[in-house]
Amino acid sequence: MNRLTNLRWLVFGAGLLLATVATAQTKPGLQRIQNAKIGLITNRLNLTTEQSQQFWPVYNEYEAKKQEVRLAIRRLNAETNNLTASDERILSDLRELMSLRQKEVDLDKDYMNRFLKIINVRQLAELYKTEQQFTRMLLEKLNRRDANNQP
User: Fold this and answer.
1) Tell me: the pLDDT tens digits for 108-125?
2) Where in the sequence is the domain holding 111, given as residue range(s)?
3) What's the first-to-final CA gap in the chain, in angstroms?
4) Cα distance between residue 42 and residue 132, in whole Å
């Protein structure tokens, strides 16, 4: 797979992870995760005041739209795993799943262009890298927590 495909899958996985964590966390816990992510991104991108004022509303809009698509994908994946459904229903669900994945790719392309009107290409690359690192850190923390809670 090429790097862009790997990046898309990692971002997709990050979204699913955040969606899972969001449902498992209380509001203060979710807010703490969001604050940590914002802090990390702010620190790594070195945004100017002007960039920051323009970037965060666009990024928050992007995240909300991505979350919406990811939740639809999760729901559809759960339905598609029901192999007792008719072949037509399963095929329909699979086609809808492909459509949602394409919607996510289109969203990424659209917002990449929007981000590049606010930040430079190096900052954008750093944003993607930072999102990956944040996801890994979150996974590691969840794995440690789960390991500590097991008998």
Assistant:
1) 999 999 999 999 999 999
2) 3-140
3) 39
4) 15
* 112 part of a folded domain: yes
| Tally of structural domains, the chain | 1
pTM over 0.90: no
Domain membership of residue 149 (yes or no) is: no
Task: Tell me the pLDDT tens digit for each residue of 34-61.
Answer: 899 999 999 999 999 999 999 999 999 9
DSSP per residue, 42-87: HHHHT--HHHHHHHHHHHHHHHHHHHHHHHHHHHHHHHHT-TTS-H
The angle that helices 3-24 and 87-116 make with each other, rounded to 10 degrees, is 100
Indicate whether 145 belongs to any domain. no
